[in-house]
Amino acid sequence: MTLQTILGAGGAIGTELARELKSYTNQIRLVSRNPQKVNDTDQLFPADLSDAPQVDKAIEGSSIVYLVVGLEYKVDVWRKKWPTLMSNVIKACEKHNARLVFFDNIYMYDREFLSDMTEETPVRPTSKKGEVRAQVAGMLLDEVKAGRLNALIARSADFMGTKNSVPYEMVYKNLKQGKAANWFADINKVHSFTFVGDAAKGTAILGNTLAAYNQVWHLPTSSTQLTGKQWIELFAQELQVKPKTTVLPGWMLGILGVFIPIMREFKEMLYQYDRPYVFNSSKFEKQFNYKPATPEEAVKAVVRAAEVAAV
After folding, report:
1. Dist CA 31 CA 40 (whole Å)
2. CA-CA-CA-CA torsion sign (161, 165, 168, 173)
3. Considering the domain boundaries, does residue 238 fall inside one?
4. Confidence band (pLDDT; 50, 70, 90) for 274?
């Protein structure tokens, strides 16, 4: 059994990933400021990942390292912390000969190509957060091209789970409380979501497939194209409530941002909701003969997980 280490354990992806890695090894190291066991045999490693010596120690002895950290959703924080974090992780992985799996998003893609995103979609960020994501992904790929690092990028669309996801925070929670579900910009535009279970399982598969390294992969995501309105209707049906909706335009986000900082930060990403947003994971599905969860299955799983957590 090989030691596999999760940097950013406990987050939306880290917890699910720890469960999936149990199929591959019983040596799993969970690294965060305050890690909590997911499996009985997990090793807990408290660390500040902004500190290079602590990152080095956390990675020492690992065969595979998963970087699934979710930093605070502020561009100033991202600019300050992401390049340092990526540099620290790359140096430690190279030093200890560990393979690196970077869980990434699509912020760096050219906004004019969101209607059919593949691994070949042009990288041309048009947001401040997208610029940071392009920078750190480039740092990793440069080391791969130089032959110093064995790594891959596992890229996800906006994900759907019970932690920090738009469908959960803006749709499920509101409908559950008898309020109108919130959506952004245009409720009639198609929008893909990667179910957190598929994201974790796909990341584990890639990390444990040697031939998958040194390239970019889109994580398995249903090809069924649903609009915001249809996603809300699915949640409403599952909760047995009326699909009431409120659409938040860009100018309203500006006002809300005065009172709710996260809305101010989100405004620059609004372009992802004013046009078709279709995530293509056919490369992964064909390579691994994998069928992602359907939208209905994903919504049922999110609602079920939320209800279990509430008990």
Report:
1. 15
2. positive
3. no
4. very high
